[in-house]
Structure formats: C-alpha cells, structure tokens
Description:
Layout: H1 5-21, E1 26-28, H2 30-43, H3 46-56, H4 60-75, E2 80-89, H5 96-99, E3 107-110, H6 114-129, E4 144-157, E5 163-166, H7 172-175, E6 180-186, E7 192-197, E8 200-207, E9 213-220, H8 226-237, E10 243-245, E11 252-255, E12 258-265, E13 272-278, E14 280-287, E15 317-329, E16 333-345, E17 354-362, E18 367-373, E19 379-385, H9 393-403
Helix pairs in contact: 1-8, 2-3, 2-4
Amino acid sequence: MGVATTTVRAVNALTARWAGVSEGSTAFSAAGVWPLLAHLADGAEGAARAELAEALGLPAGQAAGAARELLVAMRAMRGLDTALGLWTKRTLELREAWAAGLPADAHGVLTGEPEPDQRALDAWTVNRTGGLIDRMPVTLTEDTEMVLASALAMRTQWLSPFHETILDTGYAPWATTPRLGLSRSSTVLDRVGVADTPGGCVTELKVLGSNALDVHLLLGEEGMTRGQVLGAGVDILAGRCSVLPGPRLPYGSVGPGLGVEKVRCVRPQPPSLHVTTVAYTMNASHDLLKLHQLFGLTTARDTSRGHFPGISDSPLAIESAEQNTMAKFGALGFEAAAVTAFAAAAGGVPETRYVTTRINAAFDRPFGFLALHRHTRLVLMAGWVTDPLPYPEDDWEDEWEDER
C-alpha cells in the first residue's frame, strides 16, 4: 500500500499514548492528527520543532515526506476517504517549499470574517466526510491567519453480519436498561484470541470488513485501564504481544469474557465460535491543546512569538487545535469519521452421541476498539465503549410479550 512500517508504528504509538489519557465513552483518530503535526513540524524551529518531532516519533526533517506518503496510501484504501485542507488570509505569504508539500488542491482563502469563513469550512467538512460530521472543529477569530485541517471517513460492511438481540449481561450499569446486543456464530475460530500483556490478559476479536477495513474489539481483565487495553491492541498489531488463537485455546475460562466448553450434539458438528457484543454510536470532541504535551504543542501555543518560519516569514503560533469524531458499530457494518483542525494566529432432549467444541466470547461490559486497515495495520480510529445503544423500546415490549 506504499506506507512505511515506521510511519504506521509512529501513528499507532500516538494512538496508544492518546488512549492512556482519554476519558469516558470516546472515539479518537491519531491518523487524523499525525499528518497535520508532521506538516507543522516541517515548518517549525527551535523548541516547537523538537517537541513536535517527539510527539510524531520521527525526526522533523522526515515528517512531511512521511505524511505525504501516509495520505497517498490512505487515499488508496477502499472504503476510506481522506483529505487535507489549508486556508490562509490573502495577506499571509507562504514559503513555496512548504506549500509545495501539500496536495495541489488543498489551498483555500480566509476572508478574515469569522462567520462566512466558518460556513465555508463547515461545507468542506460535510463534503469530505459524506455528512458524517457537519462542523469544522475550529474557533475562528479576526486574528486567525491560517487553518490546517484533515478529514477522514471510513465505511465497511461485515463479511459476516450480526443478529440484533437484547443483551444478556451481568454488568449492572448495562443491565438496568435493555441494550441492543449483537450476536453471531461461525466456524472460523481464529477470529478470537487471548493476549498475555504486562497489564493483564486481553481478549481480542477481529470483525472483518468487506473492503479490508476491520474493527478489533478488545476486552481486558476487570481493573485494567483503557490505556492498558487499547495499548495492548496496538502492541498486538505490532507483534509485541503473542496471541493464543481460538483453535489452540484450552477448555475452561481462558480470558476476559471468553470460555471454551465441550457441547453434546445430535449429529457431528465442527467447533464453533459464538460472539456477543453491543451496538454503539458515539460522537466526541477533543481539545488538543488541553493535551499539548501529548501532541508536542507546548511551545507552539505560545502566541507571544512565532514558531514556524518554515511556513511563512510572518510569525505564527497555534491558537486552537481540535478534533470532532463519530463512530457507529451495528449489525451490518461500521462507519466512522474524524475532522481535525489547527488554527494559527499571529503571536426436551434427543440422544446426544457426539461432542463438539464451542467458544463463547462476550463483550458485555466496557471494552475498547481499534478500527484499522487490515494489510498495513494502520489504526484509523480508536475508542472506548461505555454506553451501548438501548434496545428499541417497541421491539423490547413485543419480545417481552412473546416470552410471556
């Protein structure tokens, strides 16, 4: 797909670090932030350049080239739409070498009037995400000289769809209200496995999409933090954690939410994998400047002076940096989007003769997910599920009446 392993690992490492400081039910995209940080690093100097390079995990001199390579590779991925945009005031003169590193159609103009400029940026957002996100996450002021933004939208359909059902769970917060559960069965046992990580055991389930965009569900031992669980998922992708796959699992309770049992049956049956999880939809907003150390923006946010002479002779500093995301996991597929923007300002039982093996995997309490490209293992979106969708009230009442 044309993207270097070092770049993929750098983006995924940012995903893992971001997971360690995230809170609540959330979704976030380091893949949406990383190219912007790379282009900023390319034009930065001094402490700002060093901090951005540390956040990127690559030398600043290599960052812009890696970002261009990454964006080209992402555009070639089926089911994924990506874009990068730059808007500047007419009075801001960019250095040709820096501007030449951006896509040819990326450059737009800011009028200096916040309201019409915001409408134009919002229209770009809607167009680039197919309507999944409707607002550019940027706060424009009369002092805004430049906006650098990225958009990412992914859609996939499951190779094997789920069936909707009422979730049966012992996790009290989810049991108080009927939740929209998803279930499916298959004979492909290696979709599930258990990883032994420094923080504890993590159960991984691979949900494969039809266009090589997959979602990996990750359930950790009770007491593990989201940072440990999602970090383990990134380590699994990088081959730093060994995974015991479904066909090799022993009988018994073998991992979080995972059990293997012998089941008697009337006729010969192959071993099977039975999965239970939940449907979820989430929207999240992130103020990246609140996490300025994570993103290498500590010095760059100092508006008392400029930090990007490689971008323009005019002094520039980061006045805002935000990301809006959405993610939806359902019976038939998954879709997610992220828009990231940086604004720069001046300063009954028959006989059972046979036995088969059955693996049961239940993601019925808070868990993490990584949405990724199967072949490059690039994580496009990550998140933590704490509030699944409720089961539709009318359907729940009908089902309850049927059971009566």
